[in-house]
Amino acid sequence: MTIIGIGGGTGSGKTTVVRKIIESLPDKSIAVIPQDSYYNDQSDLPLEVRKRTNFDHPDAFDWELLAHQIEELRHGRAIEQPTYSYITCTRLAETIHVEPKEVIVVEGIMALYDKNLREQMDLKIFVDAGCDERLLRVIQRDIAERGHPLEMLIDKYRNVLRPMHDEFIEPTKQFADIIIPNGGHNEKAIAMMQMYIKASVNQI
Fold this sequence. Notes:
The chain has seven helices and seven strands. The protein has helices at about 15-25, 45-50, 65-75, 115-120, 130-145, 150-170, 185-200, and strands spanning about 1-5, 30-35, 80-85, 90-100, 105, 125, 180. The strands form two sheets. It has a five-stranded parallel beta sheet, with helices on both faces. A two-stranded antiparallel sheet has the order 3-4. Strand 3 and strand 4 (about 90-100) form a beta hairpin. Helix 1 crosses helix 7 (about 185-200) and helix 5 packs across helix 6. The model has no long low-confidence stretch (mean pLDDT about 85).
């Protein structure tokens, strides 16, 4: 089994990189574990408190559960991946059954943040993109998919996304084995990454 961590800021192109990995591997040989599924269960808190959650801060994540479930997969045991609702800002009762696969990808803004989680990874990737490019992607995505007004997105970027990125996400670049500049548009870097992963899988 090969466990891959893919980190990088919001709008950096992580989803594109994950898709490229999936496309390069045989069907049903990969499982993608999104870090967003592991936000803390806040069902014991009032809704108005939950809505103030800073989803870009490390304290928002259940690191212990995420590291434990990756360890379970590594040892060949299936997991029940949690699911999370941004509407209620807490964990849902439903889970997703995930079987061990040849390749496990842990993807999220802080996938490389936690030491216990990093130590389980065979390959650590940081997807990089300039702050202007990330802002534009966030604006395009959130207006199109979530209907958020432009003024709100700019305010969120200035007061939450940018400072959290600078403090907690950008420093995790030092732990990466591979840094992919220009996000999912760097075809040469992605091709080299694909070759490495395929070679690793063929050795299993």
